[in-house]
Design the sequence.
C-alpha cells in the first residue's frame, strides 16, 4: 500500500459516486483512504432523493482527528455543500504542503444541486487558490468562468479564465460535450495536454468524475507526475466504465475493481 489519500466529500448511499467511489478507487489503485464526510445523500442510480449536511464542527472534527494522527500524502475534495463548509475546509487545508485535488462538484449526474450558489464564490476565493489541481466538468467550468462552453474551441478559450482562479493545474473534462470523441484538457504550469478517448455509449457513468479525481489524487500521493497521473486515471475510468456491472434503473455505477 502506497500513499495516504484523505478524502473530504459527501456520501452516496447508492455506492456509485462520492465517498464510496473515492474509497474504492484509492483502494483499487493501491493507496490508503481516510475520509471526512461532509454530507449524507439518500441517492440511487435515478437521482438524489435527499441531502443531510453534517454540522460544520463535526466535519472539522473528522478532519482534525485524521490529520493529527496520520501523515497525509494527498487530499481530494468533492461535495462540500455550502459556503461555510468550503471556507472552513480551505482554512484547514492551507496548513498542509501535500497535493490538494479539488473536484468542484456542483451538480449531480441526475441534475440535483450539490453546492449552494453562494458557495461558488467561497470555492473561487478560498479553496481553488490553494489547490494543485481542479477538475471541473463543462457545466462547472461554465459556472466558474461565466462563459458558455459548447465546442472544444470554447474549452480552450475558457483556460485563461480558469487559470486566473489560481489553481496550479487544471483538468477541464469534456465528457458533457456532444460527439463520439471525449476531449479532456490538462493545463500545467509548463505544458498543455489534450487527452482524447472514444466515448463509450452507455448510461452507466455514475461517479466518473469522483473516480477520476480520486485516481489522480492517488497517483499524486504516490509521487507520479501530473501528466502521468491524469493519463493513468483516464485509463482506469475507461476500464471501469467498460466493465460496469449495469445495475440500477438509471445511471449505474462503475466497476472500480476492473482491470484490463
Ligand atoms: N461515456 C464515456 N466514455 C468514455 N469516457 C467517459 C465517458 N463519460 C465520462 N468519461 C470520462 O470520465 C471522466 C469524467 O468526466 P465527466 O465529464 O463525466 O465528469 P463529471 O461530469 O464530473 O462526472 P460526474 O457526473 O460523475 O460528476 C473524463 O475523463 C471523461 O473523459
Ligand atoms: Mg463531477
Sequence:
Amino acid at each position: 500500500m502506497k500513499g495516504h489519500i484523505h478524502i473530504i466529500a459527501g456520501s452516496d448511499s447508492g455506492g456509485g459516486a462520492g465517498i464510496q467511489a473515492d474509497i474504492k478507487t484509492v483502494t483499487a489503485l493501491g493507496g490508503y483512504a481516510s475520509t471526512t464526510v461532509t454530507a449524507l445523500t439518500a441517492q440511487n442510480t435515478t437521482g438524489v432523493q435527499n441531502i443531510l449536511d453534517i454540522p460544520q464542527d463535526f466535519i472539522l472534527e473528522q478532519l482534525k482527528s485524521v490529520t493529527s494522527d496520520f501523515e497525509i500524502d494527498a487530499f481530494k475534495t468533492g461535495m462540500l455543500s455550502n459556503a461555510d463548509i468550503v471556507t472552513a475546509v480551505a482554512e484547514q487545508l492551507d496548513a498542509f504542503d501535500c497535493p490538494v485535488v479539488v473536484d468542484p462538484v456542483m451538480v449531480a449526474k441526475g441534475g440535483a444541486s450539490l453546492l449552494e450558489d453562494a458557495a461558488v464564490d467561497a470555492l473561487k476565493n478560498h479553496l481553488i487558490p490553494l489547490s494543485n489541481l481542479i477538475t471541473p466538468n463543462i457545466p462547472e467550468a461554465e459556472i466558474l468562468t461565466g462563459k458558455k462552453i459548447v465546442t472544444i474551441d470554447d474549452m480552450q478559450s475558457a483556460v485563461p479564465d480558469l487559470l486566473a482562479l489560481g489553481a496550479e493545474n487544471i483538468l477541464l473534462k469534456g465528457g458533457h460535450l456532444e460527439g463520439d470523441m471525449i476531449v479532456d484538457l490538462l493545463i500545467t504550469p509548463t505544458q498543455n495536454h489534450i487527452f482524447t478517448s472514444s466515448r463509450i455509449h452507455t448510461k452507466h457513468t455514475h461517479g466518473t468524475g469522483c473516480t477520476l479525481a480520486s485516481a489522480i489524487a492517488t497517483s499524486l500521493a504516490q509521487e507520479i507526475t501530473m501528466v502521468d497521473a491524469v493519463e493513468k486515471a483516464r485509463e482506469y475510468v475507461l476500464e471501469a466504465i467498460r466493465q460496469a456491472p449495469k445495475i440500477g434503473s438509471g445511471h449505474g455505477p462503475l466497476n472500480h475493481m476492473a482491470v484490463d
Observations:
- Strands lie at 4-12, 32-44, 47-53, 74-77, 100-102, 133-134, 169-173, 181-187, 192-198.
- Helices lie at 18-28, 56-69, 83-93, 117-127, 138-145, 152-163, 208-221, 226-242.
- The mean pLDDT is 96.
